Amino acid sequence: MAQAHHFSAKLTWTGAEKGSTSSYESYSRDYMIEVTGKPPLAGSADKVFRGDASRHNPEDLLVMSLSACHMLSYLAEAARAGVHVVAYSDEAGGTMQLHQGKMRFTEVSLRPQVVIAKGSDPARAQRLHEQAHEHCFIANSVNFSVSCDARVSVAETV
Predict the structure, then answer these.
(1) If one looks up domain 58-154 in CATH, what number appears?
(2) Could you give phi then psi for residue 23, rounded to 5 degrees?
């Protein structure tokens, strides 16, 4: 694997169509994220920050990037270890609060639910979450706690 990977995205404030920033209360927080070759993603601020609750917000995207990175790292570890994962879901959550005078994330909790095939080792499948966490690029890049409370079960059918 190459030692450096580069990523780029284009963000466009689409709220300008609804008016300028003439006042804090009146301007739209809507934007579009575009990455070449991928569907655009509609975003806004969180509703508490006067955004459109029907659009993705930066806080949701941060939590989900940690969740997705952990899942992808976990699936890679499982494949290498011979653990056959047949289902994976996560209900992740994060806390943002005032810390030293600034709003910031203070923690994100991952709660993956993993189903493995009969014949795979549940204890090993559980331990793989630690390895996945160590290899998660996004978790390695943030300055707050990322915890993982994983549950592993065995599929009832083969």
Answers:
(1) 3.30.300.20
(2) -155, 155
Q: Which pLDDT tens digit goes with each residue over 15-43?
A: 888 888 888 888 999 999 999 999 999 99
The domain locations on the chain are 10-49, 58-154
At residue 40, what is the residue type? P
Residue 8 CA to its chain's centroid (Å) = 18
Does residue 102 sit in helix, strand or coil? Answer: strand
DSSP line for 104-142: EEEEEEE-EEEEE-TTS-HHHHHHHHHHHHHH-TTGGG-
Number of helical H runs and strand E runs in the chain? 2, 9
- What distance in Å separates the CA atoms of residue 50 and residue 28, rounded to the nearest whole number? 8
Among 82, 86, 13, 6, residue whose Cα is nearest residue 45 = 13
Q: What is the pLDDT of residue 55?
A: 97
Say what the pTM is. Answer: 0.91
Q: What is the pLDDT of residues 56-77, one digit of tens each?
A: 999 999 999 999 999 999 999 9
